[in-house]
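User: Predict the structure for this protein chain, please.
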Amino acid sequence: IGQQGSMVAFDRLRFDYNFARPLTADEVQQIEDQVNAWIAEAHAADVAVMPIAAAKAKGATAMFGEKYGDEVRVIDFPGVSMELCGGTHVSNTAEIGLFKIIAETGVAAGTRRIEAVAGPAVLEYLNLRDKVVRDLGDRFKAKPEEIPERITALQDELKTTQKELAALKAELAIAQSDQLLDKAETIGSLKLLVAEMPGADADALKTAAERLLQKLGEGAVFLGSAPADDKVALVAAFSPAVNQKGLQAGKLIGAIAKLCGGGGGGRPNFAQAGGRDPSKLAEALDEARSQLQAGLS
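Assistant: Here is the predicted structure, written as structure tokens:
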């Protein structure tokens, strides 16, 4: 592991290093604990200027390929580190006060970054986090140590509610689809149903289309909806007899979706698409009906 770059201010730092994976939470904590231990041990700085050969012989570390003159400034905190550096430093590690890692992220392939605060900035950082924790505690009526468990419980409850909502939407789609059966038209030996299902999302349209085709038998079903102000959902379901006439759900729905500012596709017998312009939904359904009527005739 080697240093790849850094930024040092009086109250914060950024340290880049080469490493192939993110640090674990335990590893981050170990680094933070080690730095704070060195701070507490109050190591005094030993600063000297010497020939670069002598500095390297003493074990001083040169940083990521920097160029140095014949004489270099050596910063030595005995037992901690010895480096070649022209910048200013504290005279004793105790002056730093505290060290807190606030982020460990990837900045490039094989390069990680640690960001940290030090001294009074640690207190500011902790005060902000404490405010957030107290606010969450008030909202959840929970002690700080209980907050993660409460959030997990809420997440589980939300997942359950979402599943129940999806089931209700499916039931509603089935009920709505049954009401659409009377709108089907007969073209030869085939059935054609093109209709709008107001407010239905993509999953509900899929459920409805599959059910309708099953009830109609040989034929084609094309449904559309506008589940949001800026969203269009389309679905097409074709029986084998429709495919035999050269009509494919994926190709047709892709072209129709373009009328609504979107796109999509799928298999010859079933396809879904979306769009961004609900104002064009009626026009799109009319076009789908016209093309299907012509193709089935």
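The first helix runs from residue 25 to 40.
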